[in-house]
């Protein structure tokens, strides 16, 4: 059986690396995606500040691969559990809209 490891926000170097890539862009101020990029960076900052330590995810992965009673889904972090609980009561479109709102993204390209 295969399993899904589904972490919520993880406090890692992802934001730092994303900022480095963003800074290396030829001229990020002219990007048609600049506003959405800024909104995503802000959302990721919150995740970075409130996220779980990567070692928590590693522990769950280790538990999953060594378990005699393998589960289909392993949620890591309270935000992952909250999102999955909300997902149970939503249509696909409602869930997508919730996630877009969470990241400050509008439908289509937000310029």
Give an account of the 3D structure:
By secondary structure, this protein is mainly alpha-helical. The protein has one domain (4-102). It is built from five helices and two strands. It has helices at residues 14-23, 34-50, 54-66, 78-88, 92-102, and strands spanning 4-7, 73-76. A two-stranded parallel ribbon has the order 1-2. Helix 1 (14-23) runs antiparallel to helix 2 (34-50). The longest helix has 17 residues, at 34-50. The mean pLDDT is 84.
Question: Secondary-structure blueprint of this entry?
Answer:
Layout: E1 4-7, H1 14-23, H2 34-50, H3 54-66, E2 73-76, H4 78-88, H5 92-102
In short:
By secondary structure, the chain is mainly alpha-helical. The chain has helices at residues 14-23, 34-50, 54-66, 78-88, 92-102; strands at residues 4-7, 73-76. It has one domain.
- Spatially, the strands of the biggest sheet line up as 1-2
Percent of residues in helices: 55-70%
Going by helix content, strand content and strand pairing, the class is: mainly alpha
Largest sheet data? 2 strands, parallel
Extract low-pLDDT stretches: none
Q: Please count the helical segments.
A: 5
Attribute tags:
111 residues; mainly alpha; two-stranded parallel sheet; 5 helices; 2 strands; 7% strand
């Amino acid at each position: 059986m295969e399993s899904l490891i589904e972490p919520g926000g993880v406090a890692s170097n992802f934001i730092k690396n994303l900022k480095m890539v963003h800074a290396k862009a030829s001229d990020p101020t002219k990007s048609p995606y600049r506003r959405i990029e800024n909104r995503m960076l802000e959302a990721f900052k919150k995740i970075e500040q409130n996220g779980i330590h990567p070692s928590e995810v590693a522990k769950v992965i280790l538990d999953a691969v060594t378990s005699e009673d393998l589960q289909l889904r392993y949620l890591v972090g309270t935000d992952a559990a909250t999102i999955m609980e909300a997902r149970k009561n939503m249509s696909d479109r409602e869930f997508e809209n919730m996630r877009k709102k969470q990241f400050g993204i509008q439908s289509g390209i937000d310029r």
